[in-house]
Amino acid sequence: MACKIAGQEGVAMSTNATVILLEFNELTPAVVERFVREGKLPNFERFYEESNVYVTDAQEAQDKLNPWIQWVTVHSGLSFAEHGVSHLGEGQKLTRKCVWDLLSDANLPVWVCGSMNPRFDAPLNGYLLPDPWTTTVAPYPDELLPYFRFVQRNVQEHTNEHVPLTPAEYAGFVTFMVKRGLSTWTVGSIVKQLMHERLAGGRWKRAVLLDKLQWDVFRFYYRKLRPAFATFFLNSTAHLQHKYWRNMEPEHFTIRPSPAEQAEYESAILFGYQEMDKLLGRFMALAGRDTTLMLCTALGQQPCLIYEDQGGKTFYRPRDFARVLSFAGVRAAYRVSPVMSEQFHVLFETEQAAHEAEFQLRALQVDGTPAMLVSRDGATLFSGCKIFRPLAQEAVLRAGSGTATRFFDLFYQADGLKSGMHHPDGFLWIRTPEREHHVSAEKVPLRSVAPTVLEMFGVPCPTYMTAPSLSRSAAPSSDAPRRLAGAGALGR
Fold it and tell me: Which string of DSSP letters, residue by residue, matches 405-454?
């Protein structure tokens, strides 16, 4: 049977349905509400007024609020306790089928564009482009590799001024884009950004260029494949919120930004939301009258205040992974795969080699405290510097062998202090061809997204999806005309 709540009408249900799931990572209900109220997000406002509106609840403890956990929940309908995927790049460990697998099995074509921490069963009836932090799941089919590898390297090294790419990789990427929908809009945006950097700085705005490239690729394959179900993932505004919430709302923070920082970054988060607003308008035009658009954020954010008494939260990345591992004493053969922020995977040929390296990395210390977070799964280590406080330039890193060196000879500090942290509330807006507007008075579990998608296609839910599908008959909010997302200021 299809995923329905007994006695309730589903959001939509049709074997001829077409659905695009827009995965705008960590957009925050209260922030969207504020910017719409100020008249700065016209496409979000229109989308809201034509949608069934829900605030989603991740239903997880704070230490389990991470997008690589919550997006697995969105795609599988499983809680963290059920899916067990705890790190970025480990989506392949999920043993249950995701929503695109189930639709593919039902002979419906799919196009998964950038979804975080994915897994899939081959052969897939469609295309799948993993998120750029994934190293264990390859794009499907291989024709997506030139784009994936170029974007992956740029995203993983975004804190590094020098991205290690070869001329052949640049050439392969340009050829791929020219043949697959590179738009004058994107080219113009890239040229404008690079010129602005030369004249006035503003390198931080590069984050939104990937959004435009991703849009071009999505649109090309969407028109080529005509999928029944498609996803489109973006992370740029989540990144800006993590870095610049302090500049958007300095009144919440003990460590205040300088006047120069405010001049540069006060509107950084608004910039991110406005760039997504432009893309949202393009998606509404692409979808036309008959396609359902689902806008999901999985999580929200809030001011990060818990590190203010220690100088704010910062993080450190290896300048060169080989030098750090060599200093720790690692001699076995390995391969490193960076992920977000300070984190990285180290893949060894044997479990014994991984076990020895785990011990050696755990032995690294700064000022008598452990420097590295390390966990092992078979022959793979997941690691990263666990120091988040500001360090003096003369700080010393010591290995278990007693060898010492300057910490900053091996690590560099990412610019800025973290000022946004995760919040369990996200939002889900479902814009069906009927364009009906309802606002749910109650929060809904994030686990309900996957059953709701399956219901739209009349595809039976597997027994492991236990959350209810959403329905039009959810109680409307009494203040729906006045409140945008059903949630006011988020908890601090």
Answer: EEHHHHEEEPSS-B-EEEESEEEEEEE-TT---EEBSS-EEGGGHHHHHH
Do residues 375 and 359 both lie within one domain?
A: yes
Structure tokens at 30: 């209260």
d(CA 21, CA 23): 6
Chain position carrying tokens 């977000």? 340
Query: What is the domain extent for residue 367?
Result: 316-413
Between 333 and 416, whose confidence is greater?
A: 333
Same domain, 70 and 169: yes
d(CA 116, CA 126): 17
Confidence tier at 484 by pLDDT (50, 70, 90)? low
Q: Who's near 134: CB < 8 A, 6+ residues apart?
A: 88, 89, 91, 116, 117, 118, 152
Domains contained in the chain, number: 2
Q: What are 145-152's contacts with CB under 8 Å, separation 24+?
A: 146/172, 146/173, 146/175, 146/176, 147/173, 147/176, 147/177, 147/180, 147/213, 147/217, 149/173, 151/210, 151/213, 151/214
My answer on whether 404 and 446 are in the same domain is: no
Q: Which CATH number covers residue 41?
A: 3.40.720.10
Would you state the structure tokens that stand for residue 306, as one six-digit string? 């818990």
- Confirm whether 95 is domain-assigned: yes
Q: Does any domain span residue 88?
A: yes
Q: Is residue 479 part of a domain?
A: no
Residues 154 and 47 in one domain: yes
Residue 483: is its pLDDT beyond 80?
no
β-bridge partners, 476 = 440
70 & 217 share domain: yes
Identity of residue 32: V
How far apart CA 323 and CA 320 sit, in angstroms, is 5
Q: State whether 183 and 68 are in the same domain.
A: yes
Bridge partners of 427, per DSSP, are 55
* Gap between the Cα atoms of 256 and 247, Å rounded: 8
Residue 458 DSSP one-character state: T
Summarize pLDDT for 409-437 with one digit per residue, the tens.
999 998 788 999 999 999 999 999 999 99
Bridge partners (DSSP) listed for residue 428: 54, 296
Task: Say if 466 falls within a structural domain.
Answer: no
